[in-house]
Amino acid sequence: MFSCTVTADPGHVVVKLSGDLIVEHSREIHAELLTCLSRENAMTIDLGESARIDLSFVQILSALLKCPDRNVRIANLPLHVTDTAGVLGAGDIIRELSTRTEDNA
C-alpha cells in the first residue's frame, strides 16, 4: 500500500509519502514528486509514515539531488530508511537530503 498527501504553502510544498515506497509504486511516486517540483522550487518529502523503501526509491531521491535549482529535503526520517539506504550503499544520499534546510540547500 502507498499513499501521497501534498500540502502547499506559497513557495514550499510538503509531500507526505506513506506506506511502501517500492518499485511497484515508483512511477506514481516519481510522477507526484515531479509534479510538485514543477509548481514550486522548494519541497520537503515527509517520510515519517513510510513502511519500507527499496532501490527504486533511492534512485528517485538520487535524481532529486541532481536538481541544483531546487530545494529538496527529507523530514521525519525513519530508521528503516537510513538502514536500507546504507545496505544499498546510498547512505550519503539520504544524509544529504535530510540535512538540507532552505538556507543551505
Automatic annotation (TrEMBL):
**Which residue range or ranges hold the STAS domain?**
2-66
Q: Do you know which InterPro entries this protein is assigned to?
A: MlaB-like_STAS, STAS_dom, STAS_dom_sf
Q: What's the name of the protein?
A: STAS domain-containing protein
